[in-house]
């Protein structure tokens, strides 16, 4: 049995990670402010938090942390908490960047009082957006390409700058306090309970509408999607491996890069719907292509994604249709 601490443990990836560790028999300590769930505590989360080996603390990490109930020794610490959602990059850039940076600083300060066997920081493929714009990023993208922010003026960078600074702070914290640390750059993870701010649930929701015109933002842009079960498998392998100490690693799926229009068509086909598709152009600074090179994590841990996009989409669509029915 391991002791596991997860910030952002009620969010998408955090929820599935906590569920995995709980089912494995570990003690799981979750810190989250429930910012995504203030209007509704869903049944999946209620079930998870009701388990005997789950210990939940509703806490705002932008405040100085004082949680004496957390054990002083932890096997795995996953720092996943962050404000996310592409629309928020543009709507609240100052608050998003400030809060993501502040909660990481506060959390690292809190960890000074704990003995930690492995620390894992969750970052993002968004850190490559500036380099992609300047044609400095090759596809598939490896971890060693330049991370560039042309100027601090584009709202799109509110998220990526906060996460990149978090990478630096966490790695240097690990070095300073001799805590084995890994940084994960997630590439388009999807699956049940991922919220409604991301492209796949957005497409599912559009496909339930009566309108025959399906509007897409950036139809020619490509992404490579990784199903949540594969992402959790990768996280567990990173946590358990000494080979990943002080490494930056991609978690994603390099095998099925797909254009957004084709993704929309595939979602609609699974749902038995027909539409006319209209591409209204991509948001400012949205990457034209995004596909990870995962050879590094494969070499160090043996991780390979095993869920085809079609299979993952069916599972995801089924969950969202059920969620729609519960809301209505």
Write up what this structure looks like:
The protein has a seven-stranded parallel β-sheet, with helices on both faces. The chain has a two-stranded parallel sheet with strand order 7-10. It is built from eleven helices and 13 strands. The relative contact order is 0.14. It is α/β, with parallel strands linked by helices and 328 residues long. Helix 1 crosses helix 8 (228-240), helix 7 packs across helix 9 (260-271) and helix 7 (199-207) packs across helix 11. The model has no long low-confidence stretch (mean pLDDT 94). It is 39% helix and 19% strand.
Keywords:
two-stranded parallel ribbon, alpha/beta, 328 residues, seven-stranded parallel sheet, 19% strand
Offer a quick outline of the entry.
The protein is an alpha/beta fold and 328 residues long. It has helices spanning 12-23, 43-49, 86-91, 93-111, 129-133, 157-176, 199-207, 228-240, 260-271, 295-301, 309-327; strands spanning 3-7, 27-32, 54-58, 73-79, 115-124, 181-186, 189-190, 213-216, 222-224, 226-227, 247-251, 257-259, 276-279.
Q: What's the order of the H and E elements?
A: EHEHEEHHEHHEEHEEEHEEHEHH
Widest sheet: strand ordering: 3-2-1-4-5-6-11
Taking pLDDT < 50 over at least 5 consecutive residues as the criterion, the unreliable ranges are none
Count of distinct strands: 13
Q: Overall pLDDT, averaged?
A: 94
Gap between N and C termini, in Å? 41 Å
Number of alpha- plus pi-helical segments: 11
- Pairing-aware structural class of the strands and helices? alpha/beta
**What is the 3D shape?**
globular
CA radius of gyration is 19 Å
